[in-house]
Design goal:
The chain is an alpha+beta fold. The chain has two helices and five strands. Strands 3-2-1-4-5 form a five-stranded antiparallel β-sheet, with no helix packed on it. It is elongated, with a radius of gyration of 22 Å. The chain starts with a helix and ends in a 6-residue tail after the last strand.
Amino acid sequence: MKTPVLATLLLLACTPIALRAADTKTAEKSAAVMRHPLRGVITSVMAEQSAFMVKHEEIPGVMRAMTMLFKVDAAALKAFKAGDAITGLMSRQGRDWVLENVKPATAAMK
């Protein structure tokens, strides 16, 4: 009878330590967001979603060329329109694809 009680007490004592370790790993992962340079053309602006639909070039070793939705900040939403060629830094943050540091592209897009 004492063994199950002892095992339960040991488990309860270790749980806060395990939860703190999990929180630390989550914080480390969010701090280490991988960002990749992106070049593309905005195909549509979706202000209600704070997003652009972007037809982008291949990102070697990461992603093939495609058209996809990127969350952007309010400044980018105001500064760009459909048809604009842009560059930025792409990353996956939670469930969203995010485009940061959005700027006009300096050279013609393919």
